Amino acid sequence: MRQVVSCELRAVSFEQLATSYKLQAASEHIKAYSLWLSAVIYLLFSLRSLLTAHCSQLIARSLWLVVCSLLFLSSASAQQVSASIDRDKILLGEQITLQLKAEDIHKEDNPIVAWFNLPDTVNHLEVVKRSAIDTLDVDGTTTYIQNITFTSFDSGRWMLPALQLKLQNGNTVLSTSSYAIDVLPVDVSNLQQYHDMKDIIQVEVKTDWVRVIIFAALLVAMAIFIYYLTKRKKVKPVVKHPTAKPSLFEDTIAKLEALQRENLPAPVFYARLDAICRNYLQEQLYIRAMHLTQDELTQQLNVHLQQQDVRTAFYQLLRLINAVKFAKYTPPAAQQTESIHTAKETVQYIHYHLQRTTQQHAQPLVSKY
Predict the structure, then answer these.
(1) pLDDT tens for residues 123-181?
(2) Looking at residue 77, what DSSP letter applies?
């Protein structure tokens, strides 16, 4: 049955194609006849003018005839739109191709403002695919062609409405023809492989013991693995006890004693001693001792070295260090021990003096609270 219907549809589509070709041929013949007729009319009017010998009337009528011919030719080549389908009968779910065409469009003088508006669903017809709009330029005019494929899943006769194309000049609207499309249902009564829907069949459920045993074995193995991870002896991490960092006072005294044990030349010894003393003063008293000259350093130490003998001994040590560094003076070896002793006394004096000052400032605060 379906093969018979498809053959009928193909025959109908062939008839439509033949009809469209005949219409195109007829339009071409009409254009040729119109040109031939205008030429004959022009010759008749010219012959009449010669016979009457009225030249002015001949020129006027000739011009009028030329204008009429031009108007006739221009009307023959005016813009036109068309819509055609490859067939008008389909089965459920089959597809139809609609071809939209706009011919002799002057896109420079009178371009297209709005193309054919065909919704995705119209009168039980659903659009499946839209092709791109193809253009063809011939003798200053443009032809636009678009193919639209649509289908239907509802049986019956459905109308494909007329579509409109809008041009710019004067809001010109050109309309296509409408088509009736027959959607035929599929006859399945004679199909041998067609079977009706069946009721629900009760199926006996059987236990797959092999899968149950495998699943239980996996559970037991997982439980043993988790027990092994949680109960195994954990290695205790080695706790590193933090060592107390020596204070600035202790570190300075240790550096002075280490310097005393080393047997260094006088320039190296006094350069090291100067660096140790100045670093302590800079860190403890917050003065830029590493960058100050001897005179600048002694002026700032007058506040902290209030004991006369300690201040005098340390200032003499600073002058000795400058003499060794800049005057190339070489003191006796026994002088190094005395220099270390002076540096230690100065560091100890500053350290204990700052402690006493801190305690004196803290006692009023403690008594207050």
Answers:
(1) 889 999 999 999 888 888 889 999 999 999 988 999 989 988 888 876 778 888 889 99
(2) T
Contact 101, 144 (CB under 8 A): yes
The torsion angles phi and psi of 304, rounded to 5 degrees, stand at: -90, -35
Instruction: Please give the residue range of the domain that contains residue 295.
Output: 248-361
| Other beta carbons less than 10 A from residue 31's beta carbon | 14
Angle at 336 between CA 332 and CA 341, to 5 degrees: 140
Phi first, then psi, for residue 326 (nearest 5°) are -105, -30
Q: Mark whether 124 and 113 lie in a shared domain.
A: yes
User: Residue 141 sits in a domain of what CATH number?
Assistant: 2.60.40.10
137, 42 Cβ separation under 8 angstroms: no
- Residue carrying the six token digits 């706790």: 239
Q: How many domains does the chain have?
A: 3
pLDDT in tens, 44-103: 666 555 555 444 555 556 555 554 554 444 443 468 888 899 988 999 889 999 999 888
Are residues 67 and 94 both part of a single domain?
Answer: no
- The stretch 200-222 carries a mean pLDDT of 89
Instruction: Kindly state the tokens that stand for 84.
Output: 């055609």
What's the DSSP call for residue 255? H
DSSP string covering 17-69: HHHHHHHHHHHHHHHHHHHHHHHHHHHHHHHHHHHHT-HHHHHHHHHHHHHHH
Burial category of 324 from C-beta neighbours within 10 Å (exposed 0-12, middle 13-18, buried 19 and up) = buried
Q: Is 116 helix (H, G, I), strand (E, B) or coil?
A: coil
Residue 302 has pLDDT above 70, yes or no: yes
Distance between CA atoms of 48 and 81, rounded to whole angstroms?
41
pTM of the entire structure? Answer: 0.36
Identify the CA nearest to 247 among candidates 359, 357, 358, 347.
347
